[in-house]
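In response to the reviewer comment on reproducibility (Comment 2.3), we provide here a single inverse folding case reported in full, input and output, so that an independent group could reproduce the run without further information from us. The structure tokens appear first.
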């Protein structure tokens, strides 16, 4: 490939098989992967959370590409609102056999020899 052909290939905005729809979908998928890694690093999100994250990713892409600052701010706030509604996975419960620190102090105060 000659120098002129190489320069002309760089001037084209899309590669063969790409268009604005496919590049937008790729950008949304990349942002969705970032959000999922940030909010649910171990997985475990529900279907509703997945839909909210995808919608928030779409709003973030609109905010990045918008030419109007009002649209950009509106989309960013909507995405943040959707992400605020995400529920974290339930925290693991402590085993019932574990003794609380308060109970151990009470046993020590009573002079229980098994408390040591």
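Designed residues, in position order:
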């Amino acid at each position: 490939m000659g120098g002129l052909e190489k320069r002309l290939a760089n001037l084209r905005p899309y590669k063969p098989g790409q268009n604005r729809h496919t590049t937008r979908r790729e950008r949304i998928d990349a942002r969705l992967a970032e959000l999922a890694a940030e909010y649910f690093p171990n997985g475990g999100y529900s279907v509703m959370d997945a839909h909210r994250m995808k919608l928030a990713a779409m709003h973030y892409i609109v905010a990045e590409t918008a030419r109007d600052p009002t649209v950009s701010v509106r989309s960013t706030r909507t995405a943040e609102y959707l992400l605020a509604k995400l529920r974290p996975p339930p925290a693991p419960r402590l085993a019932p056999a574990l003794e609380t620190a308060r109970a151990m102090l009470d046993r020590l105060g009573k002079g229980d020899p098994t408390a040591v």
